[in-house]
Amino acid sequence: MHSLTDRLAGALTDDRGNAPIVAVLGVVGILYVLAHAAQVIWFVLPSGQFKILHVGGAATLIFLSLAASAPRVTGRLAHLLLALLAAGTIWYVVTEIGALTSQRSFLPNSMDMAVATVLLLLCLYASLREWGWVVSLIAVVGLLYGYFGQAMPDGLLYHGGLSLKRLIGYTSIPYFSGLLGGLAELSAGTIFPFMLLAAALQVTGCVDFIMGAAYRIGGRTRAGPAQVAILSSGMMGMVSGSSVANVASTGALTIPLMNRVGFKPAFSGAVEAVASTGGQVTPPVMGLAAFLIVGLTGVPYGEVIVAAAFPALIYYLYLMFAVHLRAVQQDLDASTQDVLRDSLGSEESFWRTCLYNFHFFVAIIYLIWTLIETNLAGRASIQATGLLLGLYILRELAGSWRGLLSSLRGLGRVLAHIAGLLARTAYLGALRGAQIAVVVAVIGVLVDILSVTGFAQKLSFAMLELAAGNLWLLLVVAAFACLAFGLGLPTSASYILVALMGAPALVSLGVPLLAAHFFVFFFANVSAITPPVAVSCLVAAKIANGDFFRTSFIAVRLGLPGFILPFIFVIHPELLGIDSSLGYTALIAAMALLGVVALNVLLEGFLLRPLTWPQRLSLLPATLGLLHPNLVASLVGIAILGGLLGWQWMTAERRQDAQDSADSGASAGTTLAEPPTSGGKR
Predict the structure, then answer these.
(1) What is the pTM for the complete model shown?
(2) Interior angle at CA 577, CA 572 and CA 583, nearest 5
(3) Are 447 and 214 within 8 A, CB to CB?
(4) Exposure string for 338-375, b = 16+ CB within 10 A, e = fewer
């Protein structure tokens, strides 16, 4: 994902006259945020008007940003014209909403078709500029499939074909589907408020505090910067909505530090890619996917984040163990180096920093409590954002009270700072929300076309037929399908697509609804680190100056829980808290964690010291036993792993004792052999 803010930073400092466009963009962005906040809290607009305001406004913002950063006058004027066209679609739908929903809901006129076509083309282009060609291309392929369905071969691909008028109608108006369908409503009412919260966290210094806390927690371990990367990327990826963007931002800081400590570039890049990808499965936000799961399944938000808690814990504990094991294996010890010493500071300063950032803790606690109690994600996020900004402003006023009392100039500076804070929050939130809004809207076109043509339903039946009623075979087929459909797509878009394709087939064979969606969601998520595309690894390898494919294959090993846990969700849904007590869920999670840890030890060939091949092979039944849902098999796995650990420990102790005895003997022998130091004849 391209950085709109980075792109616009240069526009404000150049001499090409782009600054006025940036000013217009700022005003539009602030109005865009205020409209969303008012709608989420007071519901002032009908659904159709709010969705066109969200999608059309997002396209307008993106084109204004492209105009502001255009190096030539022609590019500036072209994108300003596109922004005006996008604003025109908003005006048309808002003013014609009554006729569209009552008089022309099934009989659109030529102007309706023209506006729908313009809106579709604008969104496709905006998505192409911000997310690359993949999302727009698959939407175009979906449209072509909808139109030429009668020309497809009999079987899975064949359908009667949609007329051009009906096809265009399904993309937005008058059916209010596609660009203006249910996904757009979810994006507007739920996802956008969280992008605003993410912007507020950055503007109020909470992002820097999170990075500092990660340095404090993981900086003094042997793996040092690698543990920092895991913690900071996990916390930031939770709210970013894009693993690629998270790699580009936090990875620019953590990957060079890992290289300096001694990790190889490919390994450093893989750690960052896997940690950033894991943020998408970490509650309470889950990179915005939690709200998509709620919207597609109807499962309450509280149940979704509870279900994600133990899998996310397994994912990150495994990753932390894996990088520590690699540090021990390569005899690296970042705690003795000074690459992080300046970032750590003293214990006293760290706790003072926590107190100084109390607004972060209050806002996050309020957010989680409100989400669980009310299940109104958008409203809770807006309220948490207001609380965060309010407490931050109070802190700034308290710190500047002397200036406020001394002169009007001091008051003016403080008020200007507060106004700038609010403006920057709205500005960043609007730009980031616009990026997400466009890609979700474009994916909505593909989803609705595949549903209308019956392809999604037929694909589910085809997967069931291929598996012949065998659940394990269906899981393998669904896993490969999810990886294939998710390659190159943002997390939110890939999950929506694979949920449409794969989840219904799993549910039809008796898999619980939430387990089926978590299965496809995890595989859609790890497609970001799966070769040959592996977009997160591509960005990480570039930062680390490492080989892309080597980085990707190491990332697959480090991201093993993302590939293994989905199967456990299906055969052992208790891991998600489905029909299970907390204690039993924790027990299953502990077994699964030991299982993936044993598999990592097997692949690394190292525990306390290098493993022989018989020892490595003995870990295979241990791994299978720990991952198997049978408690007896898990106990056998624990016994094998514990026995190997004990054997290596005792062997290491005996070798150390023998070495100490040898060293003592050599020292004593050297002392006896020394010649007399005093003079005299013998």
Answers:
(1) 0.83
(2) 95
(3) no
(4) ebbeebeeeeeebeeeeeebebbeebbeebbebbbeee
pLDDT at 672 over 50: no
How high is the pLDDT of residue 240? 67
Amino acid at 372: I
Q: What are phi and psi of 606, to 5 degrees?
A: -150, 135
In single-letter form, the type of residue at position 519 comes to F
The reply to whether 99 falls in a domain is: yes
- What span, in angstroms and rounded, lies between the C-alpha atoms of 461 and 652? 57
- Residue 676 pLDDT > 60, yes or no? no
In 192-273 the beta strands, taken as DSSP E runs, fall at: none
**Once rounded to an integer, what is the mean pLDDT over residues 364-386?**
87
Nearest to 267 by CA among 205, 325, 204, 189: 325
Task: Look over the chain and give the mean of its residue pLDDT values, rounded to a whole number.
Answer: 85
CA distance 267 to 276: 14
What is the average per-residue pLDDT within 175-204?
A: 90
User: Can you give the residue range of the structural domain that contains 63?
Assistant: 4-181
* Helices and strands counted in the chain (H then E): 33, 0
In a domain, 63, yes or no: yes
Question: Which of 206, 199, 192, 188 minimizes the C-alpha distance to 426?
Answer: 199
Name the residue with tokens 């039946």.
461
From residue 336, alpha-carbon distances to 321, 340, 348, 349 in Å are 19, 10, 21, 21
Domain count, the chain: 1
Give the type of residue at 141: V
Query: DSSP string covering 563-619, please?
Result: HHHHHHHHH-GGGGTTT--HHHHHHHHHHHHHHHHHHHHHHHTBSSSBPPHHHHHHH
In a domain, 458, yes or no: no
> What is the average per-residue pLDDT within 431-455?
91
DSSP secondary structure string, 52-88?
HHHHHHHHHHHHHHHHHH-SSHHHHHHHHHHHHHHHH
- Residue 285, domain member (yes or no): no
Q: Of 392, 430, 535, give the one whose Cα is nearest residue 5.
A: 430
3-state SS of the chain: helix, strand, coil percent to 5? Answer: 80, 0, 20
